[in-house]
Amino acid sequence: MSSTPFTLRVINLIHSIPSGKVTTYGSIAAMAGNRRAARQVARILHSSSRKEHLPWHRVINREGRISLARQQGYEDQKELLENEGIIFDVSDKIDLNIFLWQGDQS
DNA sequence: CTCGTGACTCCCG
DNA sequence: TCGGGAGCCACGA
Q1: A35 C-beta less than 7 Å away from strand B
Q2: HSE-up of A65 (CA within 13 Å, CB side)?
Q3: How many angstroms is C1' of C4 away from CA of A12?
Q4: Beta strands in chain A (DSSP E)
Q5: Given CA atoms A34, A7, A72, A78 in this order, what sign does their dihedral have?
Q6: What is the pLDDT of residue A50?
Q7: Interior CA angle at A65 toward A62 and A66, to 5°?
Q8: What is the pLDDT of residues A76-89, one digit of tens each?
Q9: What pLDDT is stored for residue A106 in this prediction?
Q10: CA A84 to CA A88: how far, in whole Å?
């Protein structure tokens, strides 16, 4: 199970995302120690969310946009986020200045 | 075991 | 200002 410390940290961080907030792959990767491992974060998230109850919907890309395609579950994620109070603008983007969660702001 | 791929992001020309 | 390339490495087949 426990692969690398990085993976464990990523999982832990995702669990730490407070409701009503979102974060980006890059932020998680950076907090986990490797800011270039954003892709791995996505991979881990996708894989883990299938087995565990991870708030995967709280993870979006750097544009403040959902990376998924409509057929992939875009609408589902959007609905989950709106249910937590996240606001999407006219471009379906989330204002990261308001909703971005960067750990506990060390 | 090896190989290909990817819910991404940053840097440099 | 904008575009393309490179980096990162876990997971599934």
Answers
A1: yes
A2: 8
A3: 34
A4: 23-24, 59-60
A5: negative
A6: 86
A7: 110
A8: 999 999 999 999 99
A9: 54
A10: 12
